[in-house]
Amino acid sequence: MKKKNIFETLEEKKILYAVGRSRIGFKLKTLEESEVEYYVIIQRKDKDSLKCFRSDHDNKFIGLRTLNRTEVLLFKSNLSKYDVLIDNEDGKIFELKGVNFNQKYSKYAKEQAIKDSKIAAKKAKKKKQINTK
To answer: How many CB atoms lie within 10 A of CB 2?
Structure first.
């Protein structure tokens, strides 16, 4: 049986995702080089069901996975399935046509932030009760 690629796996599990392309630049004395990296972005709640994703240090609400060379070629060959969500000097974010990743992600991030703040409030209240005894 043929092993499924990351895109087939995400679509089979109905996991919302976007694909990012970022330019990684660096300078060595007078030489300036840049490299392009492709990666998949998913919501944190889906990260645990897919062990191949890592947490993002800058955004706790997402999981990331760098695409290998074969996956990048597969993504590029299916580029017509995607719309560009963001395009700036740092790179691009692509979402599947007809799927508003940004809207659905923003709703999830807001819900998660509310949950996190409630948990933090409960912990603070419990700590306060302990300290007043």
So the answer is: 5
Q: Which residues of 26-53 are buried (b: 16+ CB within 10 A; e: fewer)?
A: eeeeeeeeeeeebbbbbbbebbeebeeb
Task: State how many domains the chain has.
Answer: 1
Banded pLDDT at 13 (limits 50, 70, 90):
confident
Does residue 48 lie in a domain region?
yes
How far apart, in whole angstroms, are the C-alpha atoms of residue 52 and residue 121?
Answer: 32
The reported pTM is 0.70
Domain range for 65? 6-99
**Residue 76 is assigned to a structural domain of this protein:** yes
Indicate the length of the chain as a whole number: 133
